[in-house]
Specification:
- α1 crosses α2 (about 25-30) and α2 crosses α3 (about 35-50).
- The chain has 6 helices and 4 strands.
- The protein has helices at about 10-20, 25-30, 35-50, 60-70, 85-95, 120-135, and strands at about 70-80, 100-105, 115-120, 140-145.
- The chain is an alpha+beta fold and about 160 residues long.
Length: about 160
Amino acid sequence: MESDSIDEADRRLLELLQEDAGRSNQDLAAAAHLSAPTSLRRVRRLHQLGLIERVVAILQPERLAALLGHGLTAIVEVTLDRQGADLQDAFEARVAPDPAVQQCYRVSPGPDFILVVHCADMPAYLALAQRLFTSDANVRNVKAFFSTRRAKFAPQLPIRR
């Protein structure tokens, strides 16, 4: 197998890791029909290839709310006044590092960006809006949708051909 290609076993591992990256290597290997050493070697290689960007925990918001408060999740559409590549790069570079921004997508058609943001409450969202949108002269329009419940969170992409 070439060092920068993947095969069916790698695809199975990627799918299984998207479902639950917290499982042990032995459980992962069994589910992928591989030996444990082979599974570990392949997962390390997938990391080295950059196919696995990072491993994160998906928190259960209703249970977490009992401990920390509900917080506020918003899906925000942002339209820029001017859409040159350098201006889009600049906007993305400014908003992506903000800890409240959970996800940032460039999209087309429609708005230029879709952001998923999480704030403690409405005053925190208003501060974020001031910091990221109102103070940017190139932001033409912002439309926020506030989440009342997360019904599903699934793996991002199917890996099968």
